[in-house]
Amino acid sequence: MTFELESLVRKNILGMMKYASARDEFSGKAKIFLDANENSYGSPAGGALNRYPDPLQRELRKKIAEERGIAREEQIFLGNGSDEAIDLLMRVFGEPRIDSIMVMPPTYGMYKVCADINDLAVLQVSLRPDYSLDTELILKTAAEKKPKLIFICSPNNPSANLMDTDSIRRILDESNAIVVVDEAYIDFADAESWTKEIDAHPNLVVLQTFSKAWGMAALRLGMAFASPEIVALMNKIKYPYNISDLTAKTVISALRQTREKEHIVRQIKTERSRLMTAIADLPFVKEVLPSAANFFLVRFTDAAAVYRYLREKGVIVRDRSGQMHCRECLRITVGTPDENRFLCAVLEDFGKEMAL
Ligand SMILES: *Cc1c(COP(=O)(O)O)cnc(C)c1O
User: Fold this and answer.
1) What ranges in 21-81 are assigned the alpha helix state H?
2) Residue owning the nearest CA to atom 5 of ligand 1
3) Which of 149, 276, 311, 312 has its CA 20 to 30 A from that of 18?
């Protein structure tokens, strides 16, 4: 299928002029900056907080390109969480009240919320009961309804499984949509990232985040990897200073600690298998679903009762039992060894009380 980016972009976005900030017009070296109405006296909080940050985050994008093995900085968009990237993709491509997006439930809730805000219809093609992609139905529905964006979450939230490579490749090749592969949990999976494929597929956007494996959810930094043309469109309509200087500096320093991050990811994966084995042995557990993420789904005989009991003891997990193919399922995030031991002890107590 021949892919033509411009035909997918909203006409008003193609035609508009982007906001030209003071830092776009002059970003070189000078003695005195009196061009941006900043407070030259400084900030009561100290530091260099009085100056606007680089709207294009050049230094940070360069460091991320090195760490993630991305050929060109122009293939990286940075947002206030990957949630900003999801919203901007909808605003670049989705004509409100006319266009649609496609999602595969059960999956991450923000795709539908963003679509609802942007007044885009949501086509839902459920995953199969084993949480795999229903590739034929996805392609058939895409051909008929022509969604602008197809969201594939891999590893998927909440089912924690990776999606099949050949299925994703077929959807990329055989649909005329932007295919967004959300890899928020890719660092916990034993799989290659789709970022390696952005040169080969002009309709591919890969999302990643600093919120999970990097442990920086409070900072709010998400990444989208795509062709320079798609990245330029996202940068055209973002808020000019969407990434704060504190965020950029903190992440640049964290990127020097990749060994530490990898060590933590290994620990979480070890804890994941221990915790999953312990929970699978409990008599009121029907099944523990396999995981390529830092969480997993557990099917209980009575999920609501387990949820209530855990909450009473101060342990909060996510009740996903209302979602497609998730009957009686709770989603459990892997905690520290202490947290996991406490969780297991509470679950064992639940079993004992049930037996009484
Ligand atoms: C947690 C998560 C994100 C991350 O969102 P941020 O806005 O970057 O914190 C993205 N996608 C999925 C599927 C997630 O579960």
Assistant:
1) 22-25, 58-68
2) 82
3) 149
The amino acid that residue 209 corresponds to is T
With a cut of 70, say whether residue 265 has pLDDT above it. Answer: yes
Q: Using 50, 70 and 90 to split pLDDT, how confident is the model at 1?
A: low
Helix (H, G, I), strand (E, B) or coil at 14: helix
**The pair of three-digit structure tokens given for residue 170, joined into one six-digit string:** 């077929």
Residue nearest to atom 11 of ligand 1 (CA): 184
Structure tokens at 285: 């557990």
Q: Is the pLDDT of residue 2 over 80?
A: no
Per-residue pLDDT tens for 19-55? 988 877 887 888 999 999 999 999 999 888 999 999 9
Tell me whether strands 204-209 and 121-124 are parallel, antiparallel or unpaired.
unpaired
220, pLDDT greater than 80:
yes
Q: Mean pLDDT over residues 302-330, rounded?
A: 98
Q: Which CATH class is domain 259-355?
A: alpha beta
- Residue pLDDT, tens place only, 223-240: 999 999 999 999 999 999
The token pair that represents 93 in the structure block: 């491509």
Q: Where are the domains of the chain?
A: 5-25+53-257, 259-355
**pTM beyond 0.90, yes or no:** yes
Residue of 77, 80, 83 best suited for mutating to test ligand 1, as the one with most atoms within 8 Å of CB: 83
Question: Is the CB of residue 234 less than 8 Å from the CB of residue 57?
Answer: no
Which tokens go with 147?
């969604």
Report the pLDDT value the prediction gives residue 124, as an integer from 0 to 100: 98
**171: CA distance to ligand 1 center in Å?**
22
Pick the CATH number of 5-25+53-257 from 3.30.565.10, 3.60.110.10, 3.30.160.100, 3.40.640.10: 3.40.640.10
150-205: per-residue pLDDT in tens? 999 999 999 999 999 999 999 999 999 999 999 999 999 999 999 999 999 999 99
The first and second tokens of residue 54, run together, are: 């680089």
CB under 6 Å to ligand 1: residues?
Answer: 81-83, 108, 153, 157, 182, 184, 209, 211-212, 217, 222
